[in-house]
Specification:
Length: about 325
Amino acid sequence: MLFSLLKKIFSRHLHFVFPATKAEIKTNISLAKKTWMGVGGNAEFYFEPADEKDLCNFIKDKPAIPMLILGGGSNIIVRDGGVPGITIHLGKPFASVVQQGNDIICGAGLLSVDLARFAQKCGLSGFEFLSGIPGTVGGALRMNAGAYGSEIKDILKTVRVVDSSGQIQEMTPQSDFFKYRENALPDDWIFIGATFKGIPEDTDKIAQKMHEFKTKRESNQPQGVKTSGSTFKNPDGLKAWALIDKAGCRGLKKGDAIISEKHANFLINQGKATSADVEGLGEEVRKRVYEKCGVMLEWEVKRVGISKQQEEE
């Protein structure tokens, strides 16, 4: 594993390896406990920056090792061998939110549902769909999260990012910046905040719309289970769940991982699944859908890290 020798030598002296930071850089932190799916190994190194300056200084002077940005852990599967390099999580210092007229300015560490609730209290519409999207605003920006006919790009004015040199940039995304479940930002640039535009509306009407979305979600999606949400992207003009159903995969199991009986595009850890179970089941679904329907499903859930076998090699 990359940096393993240095980790053994300098386990108590990480300042020899990494730049000075306000927040502690930790080693061997379980990522299974920080993700909704609840599977996978450890982060080799783990860092929650104390503030924007702490993050910028780290990015500017960090060693040339792999870097993973972990949001709310809702749309990610960590492989059993863990994640080499540094995992960065933007916590409470990046979860601020304020109203400015019809705009809302927030940090990337804010939960999407908390942004929706704040907008409702402010009497600003357009954010209701976010009440049903798990994870953080940063994660929603990274994947252009959407639901019920809306996407986060629809309400976005500007974004603030830390680039690969550790500099903060404020950007006004152009029309081609966001696509379906992706964006044009380099993988090593980090969303740290955004400004969103709202539409004035009666708070009770906004609350009613959020309630309607909640009722619809609870009626057709599994609740209170270990899942990463929608597993595969919808192919153009098609629904992933319908293709999975047609291929006879509803209820299909591998180890303690299962395709939801309630919604075929949800993959569930019943409690003791490994990441290999989860990913293997997903790949079996892709294979069966292709054989039955001629469509190769594309993963929507981000899979990161290395397998247990790779770790042992």
